[in-house]
Amino acid sequence: MNSREIATQYRMNQWMQIIQECVGSGEKIDEYCAKKGIKRHTYFYWQRKLRETAVTHLAQQQEASGLSISGFAEVRMLEGSNERPSVEEAGQISAEVAGVRIKADSGYPTNKLAVLLRELARP
C-alpha cells in the first residue's frame, strides 16, 4: 500500500466516523453539517465514496465465496410466449418454460435462476 492509498484510507475512516456520528445524532444532515462546519456537498461526496467502497467490497466477498445476496434479476419472456411466472406463496416464485416448471424460494440466488430460465428459453 503506497502513501496515497494510506491517506485515502485514513480519510475514509475519518468520514465513516463523521457520518456515523451524524446518523446517531438524530439531526438532519444540513443541521449537523452547519454545526460541525462541514460543507454539505463534501459530506455527500464522502458518503457516496464510502457506499461505493462498501458495495465493491461486498461484491468481491460474494465472488470469492460463491454466494449471492437475494434480490431482483431481470427475466425476459420470449415474444409471443404465454408462459408467465407466478407467485405461489410469500417468498416463492414458479415459472414454466419449455414445458419445465421451476419453483424457487427467496433464498435461491437470483443470478442462477436467471441463467437457468435463459437457458430453458433458448430455441
Key terms:
4 helices, 2 domains, 123 residues, 2 strands
Describe this structure in words.
Strands 1-2 form a two-stranded antiparallel ribbon. It is mainly alpha-helical and 123 residues long. The protein is built from 4 helices and 2 strands, in the order H-H-H-E-E-H. It has 2 domains: 3-65, no CATH class; 68-123, no CATH class. The relative contact order is 0.09. It has helices at residues 3-25, 29-36, 40-65, 110-121, and strands at residues 92-97, 100-105.
CA-based shape: elongated
CA distance, first residue to last residue: 51 Å
Largest pleated sheet: 2 strands, antiparallel
* Subunit arrangement of the protein: single chain
* Major sheet: arrangement of strands: 1-2
Count of extended strands: 2
Residue windows where pLDDT falls under 50 for at least 5 positions: none
Helix count, DSSP H or I runs of 4 or more residues: 4
Nearest-integer average pLDDT: 77
Q: Classify the secondary structure makeup into a structural class.
A: mainly alpha
What's the alpha carbon Rg, rounded to whole Å? 22 Å
Total discrete domains: 2
Please write the string of helix (H) and strand (E) elements.
HHHEEH
Percent of residues in helices comes to 55-70%
| Percent strand | 5-15%
